C-alpha cells in the first residue's frame, strides 16, 4: 500500500523589517546639540569681536591735543608733525638742543595685547625712564600711569603718561626746556586727559 507524502509545511513569507523611526528622545538630543553648538559659535564670535576692541582704525593723532593746550605747553610750536603712529609738536630748532616739545605715540593692538603691554610697561619699563617715581593716575582711560626721564645735568626734563583705552595704548610725553618736574607733570597730565576725552572709536 502506498503512503501518500505528507504535505509540505507552509512557509510564511519573509517580510522585510522597516527601519525603526528615531525615538523622540534621540530627536530632542540632536536638536539640543545643534542649539548648543550654534550658541557656542556665536558666543565665540562675540568674544572674539570684543577682544578686537573699540578701535578698528588709528585716530588722527595730531587732533588728540588741542592747539590751545599745545600753545600753553610749547608756545613756539607751529603745528603738529604726524607720521605713521605719532604726532610731535616742537619748538623751533633754533631754540637749542633741549627745546620743549609734546610727543604722542599710539599703539593699536587687541584688548588682551594692550593690557599685556601696559603690564610690561609698569613692571619692566623702558630704558631711559625712572622706575621709583612711577605714579598711577586715576580716571584716565581704562588704566594709566606717569613716569619721568632721569635727571641729567644740563638736559631738559621729560614727563610721560601712558594710558590704555580698550585696544589702544597712548604714550604722551612733554619735554620742557628746563628741569621743572612739577610743570612737566602738570602739563603732560592735562594733555593726556584731553587726548583721552578726544579719543573716539
Description:
- The structure is a single chain.
- It is elongated, with a radius of gyration of 35 Å.
- By secondary structure, the chain is of the alpha+beta class.
- A hairpin with a 2-residue loop joins strand 6 (158-165) and strand 7.
- The longest helix is centred in the first third of the chain and has 29 residues, at 24-52.
- Residues 39-50 have low confidence and may be disordered.
- The chain has helices spanning 24-52, 67-73, 111-123, 181-198; strands spanning 81-82, 86-90, 101-108, 135-136, 143-148, 158-165, 168-175.
- It has 4 helices and 7 strands, in the order ααβββαββββα.
- The protein has a 7-stranded antiparallel β-sheet.
- The termini are far apart.
Detail the topology: elements first, then pairings.
Elements: H1 24-52, H2 67-73, E1 81-82, E2 86-90, E3 101-108, H3 111-123, E4 135-136, E5 143-148, E6 158-165, E7 168-175, H4 181-198
Antiparallel strand pairs: 1-2, 2-3, 3-7, 4-5, 5-6, 6-7
Q: Could you give a quick summary of the protein structure above?
A:
It contains 4 helices and 7 strands; from the N terminus they run ααβββαββββα. The protein has helices at about 25-50, 65-75, 110-125, 180-200, and strands spanning about 80, 85-90, 100-110, 135, 145-150, 160-165, 170-175.
